[in-house]
Amino acid sequence: MGELSVSRRGLLGGLTATAALGALSACDADPVMEVPKPTPGPLDPGDWDSVRRQFLLDTAKAQFAAFVFASPPAGVRAAIARHREGLDQDTVGYLHAQEENARQRLHLAAGKYLGGSGDHVYFTDSTTMGLGLLYGGIALRPGDEVLTTEHDFYSTHESLRLRAARDGVTVRKVRLFADPATASADQIVQTLAKSLTPATRVVAVTWVHSSTGLRMPIRAIADALATHNRDLAPDRRALLCVDGVHGFGAVDASAVDLGCDFLVSGCHKWLFGPRGTGLVWGRPEAWARFRPAIPTFEQAGFANWLGFDPALPAPSASPGGYHNFEHLWAVEQAFDFHAALTRSRVAQRTTELSTRLKEGLAGIDGVTVITPRSAELSAGLVCCELKSMSPAAAVSALAAKDIITSTTPYNPSYLRFGTSIVTNEAEVDRALAAVREIS
Ligand SMILES: Cc1ncc(COP(=O)(O)O)c(C=O)c1O
């Protein structure tokens, strides 16, 4: 920034002070928020029991749906509580004292986890918000095509439908395999590569399908796309955009390792970050093709608006406005938690448990495992079908035995388990015994 740069803090401080005064009178009578209970024992990253003790999850229940909406570990809860108290006690003062540093630390931690620079990350409230903003904001001309698949989640399909309705881009959905249990990485990559046309500008896929638990070979897809893009001008290349939410915090690959152009995720599923947080990571060349819809509150935005500095903010500058900062800033501690455990050990643990579960389920009469058995084509999601009852009935029957599962919100719908760092071998075995009984 040049000499005439405006202080973001100064600007926002004035606005916040007014809002805080109004809020004070309305909240005078509110009781002081209780800080969450301290966790029993410090974290020993090498001990999975110690890891599980960091969570307030009810251990009387086997938590195979914890990935749906995270319960954060002690370090994250403590950070949320600290920021919340600070903001509650002196909103503007705390905001001024913390904001710049907290944001920088957050971007740094995100950069370490995702690979590359933390400047290439844009924070959101959820995967869905990230997908909506991304697919609404990629520069596309009428006639340009987005290639997606039949296996993606509602949030991808709807974001693309809204985009197509708005400005006439074509969205084409392909089916990559008939049966996930027998699908192969080669077949998936070849089918997708054959579906590319000269008009394809975006390939919209999902890292781990929440419909079946199949993990897509993203790196191999990125390599196939690189071949397709080789002789194309930068603005005509097909960008690989990935809804990564069920791999992020569960699979041992950074965004850079995956080779995609954009990775969109919530931080409130497998990362076990604060609820209501998410991100979009993009390569710098990919962000250059993005047009933001929400003004950023970062310094460059205000400086440009006030005429102090003609440089526009980077497209990767996070959406502005006042946020639930106690949650946003505490995403840093979620990255720290995973750094302490290490991504490879988290992934290994997730896979060991899901393999044990899949193998057990496959041996039960009347159960069909839908998720690929191979660790390369799966992660922590395990989907299956019971001959004896519907997925919803199975979820209820298992809940009655303190086994918490979910159904997949797709047609067809399946019974779904998520093995993660908050589940263990004994719970997998309990789940298998319970499925045996109900089926
Ligand atoms: C593949 C996939 N993407 C996105 C979402 C939505 O995530 P969020 O709640 O972070 O928007 C889900 C399920 O909740 C999902 O299964």
From TrEMBL:
InterPro entries recorded: Aminotrans_V_dom (IPR000192), PyrdxlP-dep_Trfase (IPR015424), PyrdxlP-dep_Trfase_major (IPR015421), PyrdxlP-dep_Trfase_small (IPR015422), TAT_signal (IPR006311), TAT_signal_bac_arc (IPR019546)
Gene Ontology MF, one: transaminase activity
Coiled coil regions in record: none
Keyword Transferase: yes
Keywords, ordered alphabetically: Aminotransferase, Pyridoxal phosphate, Transferase
Pfam family name, one: Aminotran_5
Domain of life: Bacteria
Domain Aminotransferase class V: 113-406
The protein's required cofactors: pyridoxal 5'-phosphate
Alphabetical list of PANTHER family matching this protein: CYSTEINE DESULFURASE, CYSTEINE DESULFURASE 1, CHLOROPLASTIC
NCBIfam families named among the record's database cross-references: TAT_signal_seq
Record's protein name: Class V aminotransferase
Source organism of the structure: Catellatospora citrea
